[in-house]
Predict the structure.
Amino acid sequence: MRNIITLFILLLISVLLFNFNIANVSAKNFTSFNITVLRAGGGGSSGGHSSSGGSSSGGDYGSRGYSNPISDIISAILFAFIFFASAIILYFKVLRASFNSKRYLRLLDNKDITWKYKTIEKRVIEAFYIIQEAWTNNDISKAKDYMAKDLYESFKIKLEWMDINNRRNVLKKIRLVNLKPVSVYDDKDDKKDLIWFYIKGKMIDYTIDTKTRNIVDGTTKNKSFIEFWKFVKNDDNKWVLSEILQEDESSKIGL
C-alpha cells in the first residue's frame, strides 16, 4: 500500500512540474503585456454533456478471464489526480495572467479612459447576464448592444435553427462566480484593442423539445463552468463580446 501511495505522489509531482515548466516557457510573453492566460454563454452547447455508454457484458477480460480491481482503482485515482492537478495549474496561470493584465490596464488608463478597469468590469458583468437571458428567451436582439456584429449574427442563426427544430436551451439560476482579465492588447488602431476574460459561472443548463417539453440534452443540476470571453471595442468605443472559448481551449490564448 505504501508503494502505491508513493507512486501517486510521484505522478502528481511529475504532472505539476511538467505543466509549470510549460508555464515558465510561455512566461516570456508577459514582458510585452500580451498576457493570455469562457462556456458559450448561452450560445454554444448545453452544459450537461450526458453520456449514454452502458456497461458491456461478456467482454474480453484478458487471458485469465477477469479484470484486476486494484488496477481499476489505481487508474481511477490517477485520472482524478491528473484532472484536479490540471485544474489547479490552470487557475494559477489565470491568477498570474490576471495580476499582469491589471497592472497593464492601470498604465493604459492613464492615457485612455476607455481602459478604465472598473468601467470595463461592470460592462462585462452586464454582458454576461444580459446575453444569457436573451439566449434562453430566444430573443438575442436584447443583447445586441453587448455583442460584436459577427457573433450576434452567429447567435441569431443558431437560435433560428433551434426554433425550426423545436429546441430551446433553458438556462436557470444564472450566476457569475469569478471574473478576471487574463490578456490585454492595446493597438495603435483602437478598433483592434482587446481583452480576454476568465469567466467562471454557475447555472442550470438543459435543452428541451418545445413540442413534447422533454429534456433532450443537458441536466437540471446546477453546474459550474469555465470559459474565456474576448471583448473588443465597437464603433462607439464600447466593449462588446466578440468570441468565446471553452476551458479546454485555453491554449489558444497562451495558457
